[in-house]
Amino acid sequence: MEDRRINSVRKDLVIGDLRISFQKRAGDICMQIPLTGMAFYHPEQGREDIRFRIDAPDKEKGQRVKLLWGSEDFALPTFLYQRKDGDYDWITRQRDRSPGLAFRIRRDWREFVLYEDGTRSGGERAFHEFGSLFDYAVLGHHGCVFHGVVMEYQGRGILVMAAAGTGKTTHTRLWRDYRNALILNGDRCLCRCLDGTWYAYGMPWAGSSGEYINRRVPVSCLVHLHQGAENAVRPLSVFDGTMRLLQRVFAPAWRGRMQEKAFSYCEEMAARIPSFDFYCRPDPESVTALEAALRKHNICLWLII
User: Which end of the chain offers a freer environment for a tag, N or C, measured as fewer CB atoms within 10 Å?
Assistant: First the structure.
């Protein structure tokens, strides 16, 4: 099996058609890529889109000139500072307020340098924190990430989004159990537009669902799930579809170009991809109801009921 340690020998992961290189330059941080990440390992090196580096501790903390976002009141205090040279520092602390993680982020969000890790997690916490940063980095590659489930059925992607606790996991697992659907990611929808087509991807960051597959699928529809007394599907206008996506997109909390890109991608997806509100019960009949509605709107032409 491939050595998972990050050292001087570069390792590449391909996530959402983006090649990310991992390499250690210097410093005392010992880190290995979790098994979830190694599912996206690519043995051949190629042109990297995003770089992850481990380097020596930062010696220029005095260069931070502006706090863009963050608070001591978070369960895990997190801060984003802008530096005098235009780069950023992403700093986290642990629950007891002791040092956590520190990343230097290049101004174009294409290189991430881990220079401090006080979590004693063997790099697992750092890898998952990088997953949160990846949500923002992908904005520079005509992509975005939503809170939801990526499901593939007969070659087409269905994105099921909802607030936590609504039942999206329950519903999509019914599709898996009764329709042999694939769940590419059970918690986060990575989407990118390539040559005019929006695709959804599996990615190694899947929340507590533990469901991820290294695979991509063209997005056929966007389903916004709600609990209901009856199973009912309602098509959404472009405006309403955009507003629903804005509630689920992982966009920077600080204002600027990256936030604007996230919002524009929501509008673009809602304009190109049919969106639906789906009020449902947690039973197998909800699968049949959604399936029939998508078939009626020519979303899934090959459905077998």
Answer: N
